[in-house]
Amino acid sequence: MSIIYDAAARTLTLHTRDSSYQMQIGPLGYLLHTYYGRRAEGDLGGLHLPKDVGFSPNPHPLGARRGWSPDTMPQEYSGANAGDFRLSSLKAAAENGAWGADLRYLRHEIRRGAYALEGLPAALDPEDEAETLSVTLEDRALGLEVELLYGVYESRDLITRAARITNTGKGELRLEKAASACLELPFGDWDLIHFQGRHTMERQPERGPLLHGVRSLGSGRVSSSHQENPFVILCDRHATQEGGDCYGLMPVYSGSFAVQIQRDQMDAVRVVTGIRDEDFSWALAPGERFDTPQVLLCFRHDGLNALSRCFHRALREVLCRSRWSRKARPVLLNNWEATYFNFDADKILAIAREAKELGADLFVLDDGWFGHRSDDHSSLGDWFVNEQKLPGGLESLIRGVKALGLQFGLWVEPEMVSEDSELFRAHPDWALSVPGREPSLGRSQLALDLSRPEVTDWIFETVAGLLRRYDIDYIKWDINRSLTDLWSPALPAERQGELAHRCTLGLYRVLDRLTAEFPRVLFEGCAGGGGRFDAGMLAYFPQIWCSDDTDPIERLVIQRGTSYGYPLSCMGAHVSASPNHQTGRTTPLDTRAVVAMAGGFGYELDPGKLSAQEKDRIRAQIRRFKDYEELLREGDYYRLQEEEDPRDWAAWQVVSRERDESLLSLVLTHPRANPAPLHLRFMGLDPQARYELRLELFDAFVPEERPREGVYAGSALLYAGFTLPRMYGDYPSAQIHLKKIAD
Ligand code: DGJ
Predict the structure, then answer these.
(1) How many H-runs (helices) and E-runs (strands) does the chain carry?
(2) What is the pTM (predicted TM-score) of this model?
């Protein structure tokens, strides 16, 4: 059993292989958080001493016992307006205006299996290993119950959390805040690592000490956003990639979210996360219940790399329901950067023919194939083929592509509408807008109101119609604006605060139906690059286009930042033309491939513009990628540098779970006239094993310094390391492949 109730100590303990999480039913039924950290046994509640802190209120029944206050004791799910001035997890209001939340233990239950959430993605239990703890708290005055749900995946060091709020009273309740989880770290000095950015610069890691006060991160865009990713790490001030305590919190949510972090008067840290409350309210009639999104929690005592691996395995193996999550993905060629909107059937077929000759498996037709779209001003919503560009329609084009021996993929953006479209002319009220106000445009387009079932039914039927009618193997599902002007004619005035969350639920409704009806289709998420790169989307889609910035040197940072929470297999990454279209930088073709191999590998260029020599290199790249594909998809990932290391080069390594194969990749980002030796120590290998080392050096290096290939002891590679020859020129790269040899 990974969940233990100790009736004498009144503790509930969740054990994973290397971590423990404990709560205690405290005085008056307050559910106190006692511990989350490295695996420990017994009663951990004695570590918290009540203390009399001035101006921290005491529960009335405790009378003169002033040492006990909800304001200073760590809470499992914090209340509001009832003596705890720190971040609240729940705020509810009754019809008479009474508001807050004063939560006390009512009952608990331990059961086998994972829990499901109404209309929301949640971790599954494919290996039949999960256990669930449900602890119900009540606020008698308001007439509500909160069921705190904990999923425990012992072998994975994974704990999931969510809250289910039920109106048990006689009048309507209004939820004004309903967090998914509250996590307390009563002791310690912590750094916060979060992943901020902007379009074409997503998930840039930022690390700094947690100071007193409240730090509030999140998105109000009704998508998880380019600007802040729904994933944070709290780690020991001295934690490194390979050592130190680290906590990761990842909301499984694709809409407006918040992560609030407070360091309080007693130096304790509280993290509250879930739906952003600023633009949220929810009416709960008597008997109704509300499920919050899930949050994934991992703790590792041995550094950031180990923490990342927990999340990688969780997303790949228990969250994503697509059968593609654990399968080799086709190497694709996408026409976006090759043609943008400027193509016709001949051009597309010429590109597809070349793609086949290069060794690609799948051709993707990107934006511009529908309505009368020739730029980004029109036709979103008109998901029928542009016969002027593609005479004979999709049928004939797909037949042509398939005749070449390629699979076929198609781009869609079905959550959006152009004002210049038949859809908008027929249903102007389907686009979000506030009465009497001109709605904001984003990339010249409006957003559909996904809270309305007729809209989500239309989206489902439209995309399902394409998939039923045509032989399509892959869908790239894009959105290219943030949601604004939130108002829906379908909701009464007092329920407009529900709209943002209802739009996200509408999206999940569509994705759930589509992925269930078309399990063989490979779906790739996209939002102007990586603007909706989150665990919610990854529950349905096994991969997401990482960024619209395809410059490999920029991608080193974006993909490294992304790797803290997300596995390589879910980051769409393509080799594009040089000079790069976003930055104008020139980089070697092989370096572009080395970087793209740290992701869902593909190409996004016009092969007709390549020389014969470049085409040969691409053929070799695709062969090499296919050799490494399983290792890169399923292997354990290691960042070989700290964030603050000098950045003359970037390196990462993937090691198979059996430790019998590994690939280390490196890109030199700053050549120097007289560099210090580039010396690396491998990670994750078996020290007792012997490995055959093969070295691929791409472009310029000093040939006399080429190191010896051949057999090396695992211990030598781990502890003594390996020195690369001097490399020079613009962005050379290397891949070192290790294969364990039989004794
Ligand atoms: C944004 C995506 O990120 C690009 O890859 C491309 O599909 C364009 N949209 C098309 O409009």
Answers:
(1) 12, 39
(2) 0.98
